[in-house]
Amino acid sequence: MTLQGKHIVLGITGSIAAYKAASLARLLIKSGAEVQIVITPAGKEFITPVTLSALTGKPVVSEFFTANDGTWHSHVDLGQWADLMLIAPATASTLGKMANGVADNMLITTYMSMKAPVMIAPAMDLDMFAHPATTRNIEILRSYGNIIIEPASGELASHLIGKGRMEEPENIFKAVEDFFAKQQTLAKKKILITAGPSYEKIDPVRFIGNYSSGKMGFSLAEECANRGAEVILVTGPVSLTISHPNITRIDVESAEEMYNASLKAFPSMDAAILCAAVADFRPAQKYDEKVKRGEDLLNISLVPNKDIAATLGKMKKASQLLIGFALETNDEENNALKKIVKKNLDYIVLNSLNDKGAGFKYDTNKIAIISKSGIRKDFELKSKKEVASDIIDETLSGFPILV
Ligand code: PMT
Q1: On the CB side of 34, how many CA atoms lie within 13 Å of its CA?
Q2: How confident is the model at residue 401 (pLDDT cuts 50, 70, 90)?
Q3: Judging by DSSP bridges, how do beta strands 118-122 and 84-90 pair with one another?
Q4: If DSSP codes are grouped into helix, strand and coil, which group holds residue 303?
């Protein structure tokens, strides 16, 4: 019984796929989970609460109050009780409400009070799934740290053929099992992650920066946290949000601030993954007032910044693991190998701006991981979330020194 003792809130919304939620509830219960169903008013049009409560052995929650005795159902209590919230099926309307905080039913208030991770299995017609509003809402939900179980392609309730059909209950159940299995692999580990760019101030309105969006580093932070690690995420200026109980976010601006925050955190860490695009140089002089046109900004002298990776490489104890990144434009492997030695890294993750869809800003990346003994493993172009998972599997999963 792999899910023994797990508390799962199963959210059901108004889709024809709601009938499949009964099989899903059964699979979860058979595996040892305790399941509490929260259903939207529209969901009840597709499957009866009687069927569902017979399966779970618990009354189905749908309204804020029970009509006959006025009992108040606390979404806050459910948010604290659950180890996982699984919304299957999730309609386009529910995705939109979740993405935008429209808390007008019990399911959305429960979602917004949820302390546990949330998995979402969308279900809708192909055109609704392909609509930019749905794509945007799913991206927003991913940015909240929610896990999307992609719908399958095939014949839909409308008899049209395309992507939008809720994934089969067996596959959703497998995703839940995998989620809980993975959740344990980094339990009690402490991991420092740097992300985003650094901004090196010229004057109060100008800086030297780079194109890093923080997506790669944030995906790593989220994946480590989902596997149970306590993460310190030191990030340069980015427009991303992240909310996970295991992640402590420290916002910095300059390379020097990132250096100070990283050095302070590192001694108590088991591992560090340095994904930030840190400026190698900063202006020698910082102007307190905006530099006016025609004044002395014809030349900006630069001085080198301290190298965070190299400093942590020197501080590193035998029990600590250090993983760096290399963003290259030419002679990629040689440059990456030099960085492993110079910074005393255990692994380097190489990405090249010559690969389409790789590097800055994209939602995807294409990487090779090279170990300090020079063994190289190449990966396909994948979403940054999947890339983060590959990096962790390859570098941290078999790390024997972690306690
Ligand atoms: O943020 P995204 O838009 O998702 O893009 C992701 C990314 C392209 C920024 C990321 O995948 C990446 O490649 N990050 C490292 C970029 C970089 O600055 O590489 P580098 O080759 O210049 O640096 C080598 C290593 O030393 C890196 O681990 C870097 O974090 C570290 N470094 C560099 C300079 C410095 N002063 N201190 C450092 O710690």
Answers
A1: 9
A2: very low
A3: parallel
A4: strand
361 lines ligand 1 (CB under 6 A): yes
Mean predicted confidence (pLDDT) in 314-328: 97
Angstrom distances, CA of residue 325 to CA of 186, 275, 343:
21, 6, 11
* 116 CA from centroid of ligand 1 (Å): 31
Please name the residue whose Cα sits nearest to atom 26 of ligand 1.
309
pLDDT higher for 64 or 206?
A: 206
Residue 403, pLDDT score: 34
Give me the pLDDT at residue 69, please. 59
E runs forming strands in 44-127:
84-90, 118-122
307 lines ligand 1 (CB under 6 A): yes
CA–centroid distance, residue 355 to ligand 1 (Å): 16
Write down all domains in the chain, each with its CATH number in brackets. Answer: 7-182 (3.40.50.1950), 190-284+295-402 (3.40.50.10300)
Contact 139, 147 (CB under 8 A): no
Q: How far is CA 63 from CA 42, 50, 99, 122, in A?
A: 12, 15, 21, 22
Which pLDDT belongs to residue 293?
80
**Cα of 239 vs its chain's centroid, Å:** 15
Predicted pLDDT at 70: 59
Active-site positions read 210
Looking at residue 6, what DSSP letter applies?
-
Amino acid identity for residue 187 in this structure: A
Name 20's Cβ contacts closer than 8 Å, sequence gap at least 6. 88, 89, 166, 168, 169
Phi, psi of 349, rounded to the nearest 5 degrees:
-100, 115
Kindly report the average pLDDT of the chain as a whole number.
92
Token pair of 345, please?
């890294």
* 248, pLDDT greater than 70: yes
